[in-house]
Specification:
By secondary structure, the protein is of the alpha+beta class. It has one domain (2-173, 221-282): D-Maltodextrin-Binding Protein, domain 2 (3-Layer(aba) Sandwich), CATH 3.40.190.10. 42% of the residues lie in helices and 13% in strands. It has helices spanning 14-19, 29-43, 59-68, 88-104, 119-123, 135-139, 186-197, 199-207, 226-232, 245-250, 253-263, 268-284; strands at residues 2-6, 8-13, 74-77, 80-83, 129-133, 154-157, 170-171, 173-176, 236-237. The longest helix has 17 residues, at 88-104. It is globular, with a radius of gyration of 20 Å.
Length: 287
């Protein structure tokens, strides 16, 4: 049973946007790019500055572009999985991610999104925006990890789609509750889960900063970044629900593909084709 949900938004500095003459948040990927170029022109003398900070191997962000253009990581036909990052729509998404990174991000092309967390350059004044889960909003203001002085100039908006007026699919996160098959108290467990996941229980979840377990309850969410996270949660994507998916993550197939693309070691098509073959093999492996 879903317990609570999570999505991702763009966290940004309103003062930097104003300095660049940007008066409203972008409603399309083209507007995000145009605004980012204004930010780079205004603040880019800092050679570490990113208008839109995103780590090169951040596949959570990159795959959002893929799904936005109608692509996917893999599809299931019967009992067989097929990697699909080499298909035309996925290639469009990967190309859009490459172009966005090249124009707006000076993050590493090889280090993942935890080295450093995007909140670090943001808190230090080296980025105007980044995309991340809701908890990073608070992390950016943390006295030890972030900068509390940004409280008056920090805000958020849902990542815009390449289709104007729509939002880019965000990675759907959260936690589930389950009853072990060997539990001697299944009925009590069912009653407990029913109690904590009903509407009044979900109201407590929302107060603690998370999203409810149903889109029907998103009206419970308010404030920033809650309201923006709720908006983003209405269009989401998730990894293939294959038993071997963890093998793909552990092998860094997606991260390696993105690094190859951004460093120019391979073309988008070549890197995606190699990754798709690996994904197909790994997802269908018997062990």
């Amino acid at each position: 049973m879903p317990y609570y949900g999570g999505s991702r938004v763009v966290i940004y500095r309103t003062d930097y946007f104003k300095q660049a003459g940007i008066t409203k948040t972008p409603r399309s990927l083209n507007e995000l790019s145009a605004d980012g170029k204004k930010l780079m022109a205004t603040l880019g003398k800092d050679k570490t500055f990113s208008a839109f900070y995103v780590a090169g191997p951040d596949w959570y962000s990159a795959m959002a572009f893929v799904y936005d253009f109608g692509g996917s990581i893999a599809t299931l036909n019967g009992s067989q999985w097929t990697g699909t990052l080499d298909q035309p729509n996925a290639i469009k998404g990967l190309t859009a991610f490459k172009d966005t990174f090249a124009a707006l991000s000076r993050a590493s092309k090889t280090q993942d999104e935890a080295h450093p967390f995007p909140t670090t350059p943001f808190a230090q004044g080296h980025s105007a925006s980044f995309v991340g889960p809701g908890w990073q909003y608070g992390y950016a203001l943390d006295p030890k990890a972030g900068n509390p002085k940004l409280k008056s100039v920090i805000s958020a908006f849902a990542m815009p789609s390449h289709v104007a007026g729509k939002t880019m699919p965000a990675f759907a996160g959260g936690s589930d509750l389950a009853i072990p098959a060997a539990s001697p108290n299944k009925t009590l467990a069912e009653d407990w889960i029913a109690a904590v996941t009903r509407k009044d229980g979900e109201q407590g979840i929302v107060k603690s900063g998370n999203l409810p377990n149903s889109t029907a309850l998103l009206n419970l969410v308010s404030g920033t970044p809650g309201k923006q996270l709720a908006q983003a949660a209405q269009s989401t994507w998730f990894v293939p629900t294959a038993k071997n998916w963890a093998n793909v993550e552990n092998a860094n197939v997606l991260r390696n593909m993105l690094t190859q693309i951004l460093t120019g070691k391979k073309s988008v098509q070549s890197a995606a084709s190699s990754a798709s073959k690996q994904i197909t093999s790994m997802l269908n492996a018997s062990t």
